[in-house]
Every structure is written in structure tokens, then in C-alpha cells.
## 1
Amino acid sequence: MGSQNLHRGPASGALLAILATGAILAIASPTTAQTPDEPVTFAKHIAPILQRSCQSCHRTGSIAPMSLLTYEEVRPWARSIKQRVEAREMPPWFLDRHVGVQQFKADKSLSDTEITLVSTWVDAGAPMGNPADLPAPLAFDDMTKWNIGEPDWVIPIPEPFVVEAEAADWWGNLVSDSGLTEDRWVKAVETKPTEESFSVVHHAVTTAIDPDGEAAFLNEYALGKNGDIYPDGTGRLLKAGSQIRFNMHYHAVGRRITDRTSVGVTFYPKGVVPERPIYALHIGDNEDLDIPAGESDVRHDGYYHLNDNINLTVFQPHLHNLGTRQCVEAILPDNTVQSINCANWDFGWHIAYNYEDEVAPLLPKGTTLHVVSWHDNSEANRWNDDPRNWAGFGQRSSDDMSFAWLSWYTLDDDEYAAAVASRPSATDNEE
Ligand code: HEC
């Protein structure tokens, strides 16, 4: 099995990726990242990084514990910022940068150079520099505005959800009827908290469940993301009588807050069927999980055979508390293996990685998708309730799961050949 790239540590993964593909990877390692010859200052170097990658969450009324808009606000956090940024815990984006495709929509992660700038700045005493170098403050959009435009159909969680001033974090599913009485094709979808509840909704992942009980990932709410507007001619079918499942994570902020998170959808006009339906499926489910008590590095594999040529649009790992990492690779019909992506997993965040259109993986029919997941049932895992317990598959969030949500549309053979030919280089995905 040509799974050389699927190693746990990012570093060994990178090395093996080089060995496996023979390619020269353009990885800027922290040691080679360049910092400017001049002193690194807040005004010139750090403020722009915070604007791009941090401020959507780190400002008053948003979800993060402190605002990082001004020098005065940032300065007391300098040490903590250095630590979180070097550990790649902030901004939350857990994709392994050394395996597979690297261009994503709404990617606010920091480059190695940016991380080095932050470290250098903090080590030098976090100087302000020349205020004249400061970028103009960002003008933030009204958070209550729908980024996809005014939706045709809005489905809220079934009842307002109250988060008391002091409360433990709450994870769970809330299910609403969509109220749809006819099948409709979705052009755009966005999931969003209400005006005062942005601060308590840590995440909201929506899934459509059709009347047959078939579930399909719909959308993931995250600050700094703009909802999904499907490319022209593509869309999702929302069936009459569907339900919407909201997987929520609420986090108390010291005030009593009422939430009514909603999903908004825009439809294609009635009767218009997009040429390319987008499918969202769980792939590589493994329901035979065996995660012994106390073990830190437990691997499981799952497979899915493709009967069609596809253009992959979204990768979202799905594990529960004990999960630590997931990789997806494609075993092509000629038995060569193409890495798609690996992502580390933190139960506190559910991130859907949306491929940039021009690098979205193109995979021919006959491919087998291979999903590899790792769990940590030792006490080192901060999400582990009790490392003395064996863990296995189950539906409760205290049980474990292992699959990847993937979204794609299919292409017939001619379209597939044309799509492959339109890419700048046929080997781009191997980078
Ligand atoms: C998607 C929203 C989001 C983005 C983007 C984000 N943060 Fe955070 N940040 C949070 C949340 C929520 C917490 C509190 C929970 C936690 O610690 O994980 C946090 C915690 C932190 C902490 C720890 C605070 C403490 O109490 O010790 C630091 C430091 C931090 N963020 C820095 C940053 C920096 C620097 C960036 C940009 C490079 C950034 N964050 C981007 C949401 C975000």
C-alpha cells in the first residue's frame, strides 16, 4: 500500500513526501524564512498580519477572548501570541502544510515567514515602531449581513438557545424542519448566528438530512468565512421534507445570551437544474474502531471507490474527542498514490477546507479514496474524559467516529479530460 505520505508528524510527512514523489518541495522551513534587515515593528510588520488573520475573531463582540485591534490591546498578549502562533494553534487552521494541496478559500493561516516575524518582534520587546507605518484600520462588515446576499429561505434552530453567563461548553445537535414542500436546487448557503450571539457560537456545522435519512454536509459557520456560493452551473439538491441538523458548540462569555443560529439558502429559479450537482458524502467510514485504553497513536483506515470522475471541492475531517489527525489520499487506477491532504484535529474546532477552484483535486473514476485517521486515548489528549476506558465507534459525542466529509461534482470523460488539460500543470496537485 503506497501510503508513505500518511505519517503522523508533519516533519516526517514532508520528508517522506519528498522521497516518495522525488519532487523538490518549495517548503519554507522556519530556519530559512527571511526576516527584514530593519527592526520588526508592530506598525509596519505585525499589524497587517493581525488584520488579515486574527481580527475577524479578535475584536469586541466576536468570539475570541480579547481584542487585537490596537497596539495597546495587543502588547500585553505578546508572549501568548508568540506561543500560540508558533504552535500553529492560532489562527485555527490545522491543515498539514507539507502534504497535498495548499490553496484554499478563506485561508487565514500564517506563512513561516509571518510566524518568524511575530517571534522576532516579541523577542525584541514587541516595539511599536513608527505610527506612520500603521495600516488604516479595517472597516468590518456588519456581521448580521448575509454574505451570500438576502437568502430565499432561512431555517433557524428549532428554539432559541440560551447560553447562561456562566456555563460549561455545550456541544450537541439541534434539528429543524426545513419547511420545504418541493425539491429545490441550492445556489448558495450560509450558516450564521444572530446579532448578539456571535460571541457564544464557537462553531455551527449544518447537515441536510433527506426524508430517507440520508445525511449530507451542508455548510460550516466560521468567522472570516463568507458562506458557500457554488460556481455557476453547480448546486446542491435540497429535498422536500428535509431536516437541517445544526451541530453546535456554545461557549459562555459572562453574559446571558440567546442564540437563534440560522442557515440561509439561495435557490436556483424553480425548474432550473444546474448541470453539475454537488454531492457531499461521508467517505471512508470505519465503524469498527478499536481504541485501547491509554494508547496515544491508534490508526484506522477506510476506503471509498469512485465510479465517476470527480472534481473535489471541500475536505472536512470528521472525528470526535479522541481524534488527532486525518489524511486522505487517492489510489489512482494505475495504483499510483496521490496525497490529497492531511489535517490535525482539535475537537474544539470544526473546519471545512474549501479548495481554490484551479487546484481542486481532479480524480478519475476507478480511483479509491483512502482515509486514515488517528486517535489518542492517552491522558495527553486534553479532550479525553477517562484514559482508562476502551473507546469505539458510536453516535454519542463521547463515542468516536472516523470519516471524511468530501464534496464534489462529477465530470463525464470529455469534461474530465478538458478539466485536466485546463490546469496550468498536470502535476500541480503533487506539490
Ligand atoms: C476563527 C477565530 C479566530 C481567529 C481567526 C484567531 N483566533 Fe485567537 N482565539 C480564538 C478563540 C475562540 C480563542 C479562545 C479559545 C482558545 O484559546 O482556543 C482564541 C485564543 C487566542 C489566544 C489565547 C488567549 C488566552 O486567553 O490565553 C491567543 C494568544 C490568540 N488567540 C491569538 C491569535 C492570533 C495572534 C491570531 C491571528 C494570527 C488569532 N488568534 C486568530 C479565535 C480566533
## 2
Amino acid sequence: MKTSPKLSCHIRPARAADLANLLALENLSFTGERLNERRMRHWINASNGILLVANATASPGQLLGYCLAFTRKNSTVVRAYSLAIAPKARGMGLGGKLLERAAKKGKQQGCTHIRLEVAKGNISAIALYKKLHYVSFASIPDYYEDGQDAWRMHNVL
Ligand SMILES: CC(C)(COP(=O)(O)OP(=O)(O)OC[C@H]1O[C@@H](n2cnc3c(N)ncnc32)[C@H](O)[C@@H]1OP(=O)(O)O)[C@@H](O)C(=O)NCCC(=O)NCCS
């Protein structure tokens, strides 16, 4: 029988003091198209931003993951823009938890759907989104800077 290791964590909105840890996590998680310091700071403060972080309960200074989503005026779609889990915390359910929490916040703000893009080669992320019942509805060639194609996926909130 497959058992998942337990991970006790606390999910909360990001704050200015998280900036350095968020950037470190971004560097560990992505090779290209990373959020830079200016953009990350913007999203920590943006009124339409939903930037959530997860801390290990036992070690509150330690950032295990983050999810960034945002809403737009006159739109009922919340866009999940980025999701990253520290390598040592992957496979323990945290990515799913963070994304679902961000989706819930979008719903509380009046959104009816959530949308995201994912590289067609990102097997683990696609598996995660499918597990959460996201559906691909468009294929976007050459979506990323490095030429990778993307799926556009969405889900009902
Ligand atoms: C993609 C990512 C966010 C997944 O986070 P995670 O916390 O490891 O995912 P979870 O533990 O919540 O996984 C939930 C489900 O996703 C799928 N999944 C996650 N990692 C997987 C992997 N390596 N291989 C296959 N399926 C995987 C499984 O269906 C899993 O459910 P299961 O454990 O019951 O089998 C994480 O691997 C990551 O940060 N990757 C680098 C950054 C990135 O690619 N972000 C996404 C950009 S679109």
C-alpha cells in the first residue's frame, strides 16, 4: 500500500519578509522565466494578487512552497500564475494544497473559474492539475521563452 509522508505546514499570505526566501525558491524551481525581485515584490503588495506561502510548522522560518494567482477587473477567472514547492517537500501534497487554497480565495472574491498554463513537458505539474480535475482546453505553441509549447487548462471553482 502506498503511504504519503505527512507534512505539517502552515499556509498564509506572503509578506515583505518572505521576499528573499521566495526568490531562492524561485531559483530552485525554475530555469527560465523566473519572477524577479521587482515582480515578486509587486505581487506581495498587489491588491489583485493572491500570493500564498507554506511554512513548515516545526520551522516557521522555512519556506516550503508558494502559489501565485491573480484576479482581474471585470473577469470572473482567477489566473494561477506560478506554483513551486521546495524539492525536499515535493510529493507530499503541498502543491495541491496551495493551489486549492489560492483557488478558494479566488472564489471568495467572486471568480467562477481558474485558469493556468503549463509546459507540455511538465509531467508532474500536469499530473497534479489533472488530479485536481483541471481540463486542457487549448494548446499554445511556442508559449515559453525557450520555445516550449503549453497547455492552457481550467477548472470550475
Ligand atoms: C509541480 C509541483 C508544484 C508539484 O508539487 P507537489 O507538492 O510535489 O505535488 P503534490 O504532492 O501535491 O502532488 C499531487 C499529485 O500530483 C501528481 N504528481 C506530483 N508530482 C509528480 C511526479 N513527480 N510525477 C507524477 N505525478 C506527480 C500526482 O498525481 C500527485 O498525487 P499522488 O501523490 O496522489 O500520486 C512541484 O513538483 C514543483 O514545484 N515543480 C517545479 C516547479 C513547477 O514545475 N511548477 C509548476 C509550473 S506550471
